[in-house]
TrEMBL record:
Protein name: DUF378 domain-containing protein
Classification via InterPro entries: DUF378
Record's keyword terms, sorted: Membrane, Transmembrane, Transmembrane helix
Pfam family membership, one: DUF378
Organism: Alkalicoccobacillus porphyridii
């Protein structure tokens, strides 16, 4: 898995955790950490999480052999 794929998955996981906290406890962790939902840095985080989620859609439809290729030297 490439670095960009791992980064996208980490951001998507952060978004999922944040939405879980909002759904269960009405607590927005990103807003709490970065100064509210309207704060510029919070909006950047929300945008990055959204873009990562969209990128993860492409990962979902890739065949397994394209996602993780083990070089011949490591087999």
């Amino acid at each position: 898995m490439s670095g960009i794929q791992r980064t996208a998955l980490v951001l998507a996981i952060i978004g999922a955790i944040n939405w879980g906290l909002i759904g269960f406890f009405r607590f927005d962790l990103v807003a709490a950490l970065f100064g509210g939902q309207a704060a510029a840095f919070s909006r950047v985080i929300y945008a990055l999480v959204g873009l990562a989620g969209l990128y993860c859609i492409s990962i979902l439809f890739k065949p397994d052999e394209e996602i993780e290729r083990i070089p011949e030297t490591e087999r």
